[in-house]
Structure formats: structure tokens, C-alpha cells
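cron nightly-structures :: item 1 of 1
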Amino acid sequence: MISKLHLEHILFLDIETVPETQYFSDLDSTKQSLWEHKSKYQRKEEFTAEEFYDRAGIWAEFGKIICISVGYFKLYGDQRQFRVTTFHGDEKTLLLEFKNVLETHFNHTKHLLCAHNGKEFDFPYIARRMIIHSIELPNKLNLFGKKPWEVPHLDTLELWKFGDYKSYTSLKLLTHVLGIPSPKDDIDGSEVCSVYYEQNNIDRIIVYCEKDTIAVAQIFLRLRGDNLLNDEEVLHV
């Protein structure tokens, strides 16, 4: 039961991704052809490969991570503190910084990673981008040979399903039904690409990513039956 998990043993996280280049035309001809083939079932005949390119950030082979926000609890008796920080900038650099956290502060077998839809998106995306950059996978992301119960990953989407795999519940919907302040009060995922490439406003994206990370922690608290965090308990570091 998740109520028995120690909050200080969990690293909550969220990532933001964009297409690897601003424009489809910036890709070489081989990559353009590969994108056209990869995306044809999703876009069907409604869009050309170029028109659909603004969604390329969803795929690790055609996108890149622009920030990773992490949050963790510190408990002082009856007092809680949730510390949030973000790695951003050059993708390889931020991946190495995130890896360092997993190999120092969160390297014990008892430590877990938690994200919303993390098992389908965040965790494999980070692992794939690390491999693309020739970064050796940290143990927390290297699932080769691990049995299901040995995988150190928690997923609030999976926890909310309670074994029902018929539908997807977005972070925005889940925070709403659970009475948690929405992290989507400024931008949402569909706008990250334009905010990054057209507005060149990484700070706005960082705020959005950190709000998502806090929301994941809040959902986890609700699933445990714990009180939600208040503003005074959240510390941006």
C-alpha cells in the first residue's frame, strides 16, 4: 500500500519536451523521411508531415528534453517541506545533472521515481535521450533484466486506474476531480513548443513544469489520504 511508503524516499518529476529543431525544414532529408513514416498513422491524411511536425516532441527520436523538474519531501517531525528544482539548458548537460541526482541523493534501492504517466512517457523518454547522448543509464532508469516488482517507478496515472486500463486520465482532469489547484493555469503541453521556439521563454516553461511536479506530489498525497501541501510548505530551490 502506498500509505506505507516513506515520502522522503520518493523523487517526483515532470519533463517538458519539444521537437529537436524549430522547423521541419531544418531536418536533413533522411530525418524528414523518417518523420513522415513515423507520424503517418497519427496524422493520417489530415496533415502533411511538415504540418504535423510541431507535435514531434512527443517522440524521443524526434524531440528533446528542455527541462526536468524534480521535487522531494523533507520531514521535520510533524512539519513537511516539499523542495522543487529544475534542470534546464543544453539537453546533455541537464540529463547529466539529473543522472547525478539519481546516483547520489536518490541512489538507494528504497528510493523511487514518481510521475504522471511516467511509465509510458517520462521515464522511457529520459532513458532514450540519455542513450542517444551516449550517457550510461543510471540504475533507476536501467530496466534491463529487472522483474516487474524490482522496477523503482511509481505512476500516479497507473495508481488512479486501480487495474482499469480502458482509459487515460490527464493530470488536468485528475487534479480537478481531486480538488487540487490546476497546474495548467497559464499554458498547457500543446503550447510548450511555441513558448520555447517563438517566445524563447524557458522561464515560463520551468514554472509550468514545476507546477506539474507539485501536482503529481499532491495527487500522491490524496491517494494516500494525506493533507495537501499548502503554499508555505513548497520551497523552490
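cron nightly-structures :: done
The CA atoms of residues 22 and 198 lie 9 Å apart.
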